Amino acid sequence: MEPGALPKLAAPVVLVTGYFDVLRAEHVRALNDLRAGTLVAVVLPREDALLSQRARAELVAGLRAVDYVLMSEVAIAGARLVNFEEDDRRRERELREQVRQRTISK
């Protein structure tokens, strides 16, 4: 969807940006907690992503809490901005460490 094509959004609008790579239960819980009027998720490009940007956007679009998904950085006037990028990096480090620990223990 083109940014100019967005319909009038029910207030309050919350705009969440993140990589969502890999989509985890923490993402779902955080998005559910942010759910108010309209929740717009922006899936950002990431060079070293495990999944393509399109695949990540499709996964996020499948979540009940998310109303709209965009695949580029946009600004929506009046929207509250929530950045998940640092949380995504932390989640990825934790996931890699869990996989590494399981590999070592076998």
Overall description:
The chain has 106 residues and is of the alpha/beta class. It has a single domain, classed as Rossmann fold (3-Layer(aba) Sandwich). Helices cover 38% and strands 18% of the residues. It is built from three helices and four strands, in the order E-H-E-H-E-E-H. A four-stranded parallel beta sheet has the order 3-2-1-4. It starts with 12 loop residues before the first strand and ends with a helix. 23% of the residues are buried.
Question: What structural keywords apply?
Answer:
18% strand; Rossmann fold; 3 helices; alpha/beta
Please give a quick description of this structure.
It contains three helices and four strands; from the N terminus they run βαβαββα. With 106 residues, the protein is of the alpha/beta class. It has one domain: HUPs (Rossmann fold, 3-Layer(aba) Sandwich), CATH 3.40.50.620.
Name given to the CATH homologous superfamily: HUPs
The number of strands is 4
Net shape = elongated
Cα-based radius of gyration, to the nearest Å: 15 Å
Number of helices: 3
Strand fraction band?
Answer: 15-25%
In angstroms, what separates the terminal alpha carbons?
46 Å
- Looking at the overall shape, the CATH architecture is 3-Layer(aba) Sandwich
Residue-averaged pLDDT: 82
What is the fold's blueprint, element by element?
Layout: E1 13-18, H1 25-34, E2 38-43, H2 53-61, E3 68-70, E4 80-83, H3 85-105
Parallel strand pairs: 1-2, 1-4, 2-3
